[in-house]
Amino acid sequence: MTNSKLTDAPKLTAPKLTARNVDVFYGPKKAINNVSIEIDNGLVTAFIGPSGCGKSTFLRSLNRMNDTIADARVTGEILLDGEDIYAASMDPVALRARVGMVFQKPNPFPKSIYENIAYGPRIHGLAPSKADMDGIIESSLTKAGLWDEVKDRLNEPGTALSGGQQQRLCIARAIAVSPEVILMDEPCSALDPIATARIEELIDELKDTYAIVIVTHSMQQAARVSQRTAFFHLGNLVEYGDTSQIFTTPREEKTKDYITGRYG
Ligand SMILES: Nc1ncnc2c1ncn2[C@@H]1O[C@H](COP(=O)(O)OP(=O)(O)OP(=O)(O)O)[C@@H](O)[C@H]1O
Ligand SMILES: [Mg+2]
Q1: pTM for this one?
Q2: Band (261; pLDDT cuts 50, 70, 90)
Q3: Are 3 and 240 in contact (CB under 8 A)?
Q4: What is the three-class DSSP state of 74?
Q5: CATH assignment of 14-259?
């Protein structure tokens, strides 16, 4: 495949995530076909492509969320900092703290704002004292751009927040366990334009600290928030490159057809 290499420029840092020849099956059906890609730190990578092309399936393979789907099977190799995430020695729960996930529909637990964030650090033993936990709650909410709006109502239910606030709460929950990568599957699709803009700003701020991968249906959003774009079609990674290149001078005819709206 020609499309797994980004540019001819020498690489200064090792990739955060490396997928090599990854296939994903649901029962006998192959949903992802021989995908190889490198995902770097310090930037936002967007996955785009028509509905059903496998974006969510591939995203879930990056933190073993496919393990939770009964007949899903992943083959090939996925490395996090060079370490095989499907190795027997890898604890999937610990992995999902390192590679966090934010879903399409905000899904706060039916608990208080405070407890939504405290849950992860507690099960991972990150906060020995109440003061430690309070510190994690404040810093996570601050990084997610929500602290000022909720600091006086931490004991209210997370579900009482607006949709956009709930999504920022879910981002704070992912941040609370000090992840290295945050995977986002259409995180704005249930949000209005103002809440969407707020999340996009947040993604831009977070990318300096976490490698971010975002699945989006919106090519405008991919162009706004990402520095790299991967275009998927029928389970294949058709083209991967700098976002500006993908949107201005795609190499593949299929990419060009998609970004010019010929199908989707
Ligand atoms: N749990 C599942 N069991 C069986 N097949 C599945 C499952 N989830 C997804 N698929 C199939 O795998 C393929 C890829 O689906 P996936 O949800 O990854 O696509 P997508 O690109 O995220 O689409 P969308 O943009 O609509 O969210 C589709 O053919 C879909 O029907
Ligand atoms: Mg999807």
Answers
A1: 0.93
A2: confident
A3: yes
A4: strand
A5: 3.40.50.300
